[in-house]
Specification:
Layout lengths: L3 E4 L2 E4 L22 H16 L4 H10 L1 H35 L4 H48 L4 H41 L5
Antiparallel strand pairs: 1-2
């Protein structure tokens, strides 16, 4: 007997079967095919599963884990504002001295040139510090994204998350080191002004 396919509650022969009008002496080589209606229902169920929102119990641990990098981003953001203000003052002071050095002569010109050299060193240190700190903010944001992807998609990323967190801390430490170095260099410029005004160094 030929194999049949159920379609719309009707029994119909498979169109690929080689059965004649009476079906005598001819074997059927076709197999049952999936019904279009059933296939559509399976695809819809799969999409519903993929697009379903995660449960609140699954989100809470991930949000708790992301609190640490969020706090780090907030603190570093305040530090970047301070660095930006400091950088602006260095640039303004450098432009002011650059205008004075063209008219100065003798020891006055030498003193202004020394001040300009120190200010340029400070500007480079501040550029390095801001670059390191903003890199730490970027890696912290990337860490938050990886935490959510790992938690929701159930993808093991322990080594990657640990590495990015350590990289973020390294960037932060590098930026702080450059910032502290700028503070010491600024004291050198202040020391030149004090020595010029008093005629001796202050211990």
């Amino acid at each position: 007997m030929p194999r049949i396919v159920a379609r719309n509650s009707r029994v119909m022969p498979d169109p690929d079967s080689q059965v004649g009008f009476l079906g005598f002496g001819v074997s059927c080589t076709s197999e049952m095919r999936p019904l279009p209606g059933i296939a559509v229902q399976l695809d819809s169920g799969f999409l519903d599963t993929m697009l379903a929102l995660p449960d609140l119990n699954e989100l809470l641990p991930i949000i708790q884990l992301s609190i640490t990098p969020v706090i780090l981003i907030s603190g570093l953001g305040a530090l970047v504002i301070s660095m930006t203000t400091r950088m602006g003052r260095i640039v303004d002071r450098s432009r002011s001295l650059a205008g004075l050095v063209r008219e100065a002569k003798g020891s006055e010109r030498k003193h202004i040139e020394n001040q300009l050299e120190i200010l340029f060193r400070r500007a480079r240190l501040m550029r390095l510090a801001m670059t390191m700190v903003t890199s730490s903010i970027f890696t912290s944001g990337l860490l938050i994204m990886l935490l959510f992807v790992s938690g929701l998609a159930k993808v093991p990323m322990s080594n990657v998350i640990l590495g990015i967190f350590m990289l973020s801390v390294v960037f932060m430490l590098g930026g702080m080191a450059a910032f502290i170095r700028d503070v010491f260099v600024s004291l050198q410029a202040l020391n030149l002004e004090v020595v010029r005004a008093l005629g001796h160094e202050v211990e």
